[in-house]
Structure formats: C-alpha cells, structure tokens
Amino acid sequence: MDIGILALQGAVSEHKSCVEKAGMNVIEIRTPSDLQHISGLIMPGGESTTLRNLLKNSGLWKVIDESDLPIMGTCAGAILIGKGVNETFSKIDMEIDRNYYGRQKDSFEKNILVENKNKFKGIFIRAPAIISIGTKTKPIAWVDDNIVGCIEGKNMALTFHPELTDDLTFHELWLEGLK
Ligand code: GLN
User: Fold this and answer.
1) For the chain, how many structural domains are there in total?
2) Which domain holds residue 159?
3) Of these residues, 75, 150, 152, 171, which one is catalytic?
4) Are 30 and 7 in contact (CB under 8 A)?
5) Rounded average pLDDT over 73-89
6) Catalytic status, residue 15
7) Which pLDDT does position 22 carry in this prediction?
8) Confidence of residue 99 (pLDDT cuts 50, 70, 90)
9) Terminal Cα distance for the chain, rounded
C-alpha cells in the first residue's frame, strides 16, 4: 500500500519514518497528480492557516475536498479535517478549536489514555482541542476526561504529535483501517 504524506509544511519526515516502520511505502504529496495511487493521506501538524493557503495554491484543496481519500490529521492537520470557525474539509464530525491551550510556551507533554493500552506519550504543541464530536465519531484517545483523538470512518484526527514518539500505535491503528 502506498501512503501519501502532505509535504507542504510541518513534520513530514517524522511521519514518513513511522509509516515506513509500519511497513508501507511513502509518497510525498505536493501536487494533485501525486494523489493518484495512494490509499490514504497523512496531514501533518504545522500551522493550519499556512497549510490551508499552501493547499489552495497548489490545487490540492479542491481535489482532496472532493475525494473520499482516508486522512489521518495530526494537530494542524486535525484542525483542517474537523469543523471550526475557518474553512476546513469537514471530513470528521467534530468541533475543534485551534490554539486552545495558548501560545507556543504553553506546549506540554501528558500521558494519553488509549483503548486497550494504559499510556501513550502525548506531545502537544500549540495544540487544538476537540470541543465536541458527532454521533458517528468515535473517540479513541483521552487526556483526563477530554477527547484528544477520534475517528470517523477511515479518517482519524489527533490533537497531539504521535510522529514525535517511537510508538506506532496510532499510525498502525489508522493503517489497519485502510486494509
Ligand atoms: N497551532 C497550530 C494551528 O493553529 C497547530 C500547531 C501544530 O500543528 N503543532 O494551526
């Protein structure tokens, strides 16, 4: 299976190494034609306003918006596949609020609770927060009682950065769902 990683901005090489460790081939996505043979797309963190502009200018926005390509969005990527005050792809029925915890200095690490597992190192960098989820959206990760990860169909949104850890739990979970 070929997995695309949006390579316009953000933690591209880190996601690439996770996907390769999980045994898949990676294609870096910069133009609409790059999307042709991939089975899923990872949208990395970065800065959602910048990512939105780069996606629009490259022509990728329209194609992704109109496709059913499964997406894993982390941090800024999660903002773009959820629903917020600014334009998004709305692939997952969840309200997500950017920069919820404050500025860069308010970035933090906290243990995440995952189903079937007691902990996962959660790295939150100027993270957004999931404010609410729809009835078809399934929560998969929590910090205290707050949802920090969810899936709807083959789309997954995480407010943290699993690619900055050595733990492939979330990448493998998403990739498993694509088979
Ligand atoms: N705060 C950024 C935004 O609003 C997201 C930060 C990140 O992706 N690490 O887009």
Assistant:
1) 1
2) 2-177
3) 75
4) yes
5) 97
6) no
7) 97
8) confident
9) 9
Least confident stretch, 58-67, 86-95, 112-121: 112-121
**Mean pLDDT of the residues in the chain:** 95
Distance between CA atoms of residues 100 and 111, nearest Å: 18
69 vs 114: CA distance, rounded Å: 25
Is 163 annotated in the active site?
A: yes
CATH number for the domain including 67?
3.40.50.880
Which residues, other chains included, contact 108 with Cβ-Cβ below 8 Å and sequence gap of 6+? 101, 124
CA of 3 relative to ligand 1 center, distance in Å:
22
Ligand 1 site, residue 52, Cβ cutoff 6 A: no
Tell me the H-state helices in 22-93.
48-58, 60-66, 76-81
Residue 119's pLDDT is what?
Answer: 85
